[in-house]
Amino acid sequence: MTLFDDRERAFEAKFARDEEVAFRIIARRNRLVGQWAAQLMQLTPAETDAYAKAVVQADFEEAGDEDVVRKIYGDLTAANVDVDEAAVRQALAEQTVEARRQLMQPE
To answer: Whole-angstrom Cα distance, residue 5 to residue 71?
Structure first.
């Protein structure tokens, strides 16, 4: 039985690690896309940092990416930036790749 118990513990540990990595990738992606949007809105460096943190926090409102898309698109529209929702979704996709690259890169 210990072989099965060891195997079960290994699977549980792998699942926990995978979930942690996925969370870190999404948080990093949200920060990067917040910085992208802040640049479009021509925010100062301090405002950019605060805005990126706000985008990360916005992701905790509901499951999925819709809360982040809604926040960024709404803020860009309010700042009179000529961008559509598809561009925001494209930025999310691009920043997901970049976030994964940054986190998987050996230090």
So the answer is: 45
